[in-house]
Design a protein that fits this description.
Elements lengths: L2 H57 L11 E6 L9 H9 L6 E5 L1 H6 L6 E5 L8 H13 L19 E8 L4 E8 L4 H4 L14 H75 L1
Parallel strand pairs: 1-2, 1-4, 2-3
Antiparallel strand pairs: 4-5
Amino acid sequence: MSQSRELQLRITQMEEIRSILNAMKNLALIEIHKLTHYESAQSLSVTNIEHAAQDFLAFHPQPIVKDQTNVIAILIGAERGFCGDFNEKLISFLSSGTYSGIIAIGTRLCNRLSDHPLVIAAINGANTAEEVSTILNQLIDAITAIPSESTDSYQLNYCAPSFKLTAIYHDHRSSQISQRQIVPAFSPQVQKTSYVGNAPILNLKPTQFFSELSYHHLYAVLHEIFYLSLLAENQQRLQHLEGAVKHLDDATVNLQRKSQIYRQEEITEEIEVILLNSENL
């Protein structure tokens, strides 16, 4: 097979790879567009819950949970590849804090932390926004299974946990890794906020209402964090794929130039052979 023919086959293969990368890039764009709307709505929902908590705590103060040194980190990584050093940055961030346990989310992140002594749970991550709720149910089950000092279940002692839960994730808004305490649900500053107005009318006992509100806040915040992380993951994947497509385009142009040169040389050789044969006749 001639060199020009071999180069043409390589060009065809690279064009096929480029079409696959373009399809992946379009999927990332669709997911980014969808997650942008989801994250905006979820952020508003979290804000409304926190405002309701401020109103409630102003008239029904709850015991302030003592500061806990037992901190469990929820590390939210990538489920798929083509997103650069997304997981490596999260692992590096762990060295900046002291944790008593780690809940890793994302298959690729879990694989990198498979030998880590602090990992207490490994959960598959979400590929799309529609999978977030399913993953969160598994995460809540993992949190519930964490033993507490006073009870056998974390959920039964929700308002007075014996540990802190901190989420570590990529935040697309700052393009950096963020750390956010999600349990206890409301900081002492929120509980001390003064409020002027009428007391909220409750259909539940204050302690029961606060417990339910805290649980809903946890679920809403986790949704928001997962949307932020998945949005950052897809943005990084889009950037990575665009770089790969550009590299393929540059390589294809170079191969096409080489193919033209080789083809010209082959045509010249064929003409020389024809002229030599005609002289022999």
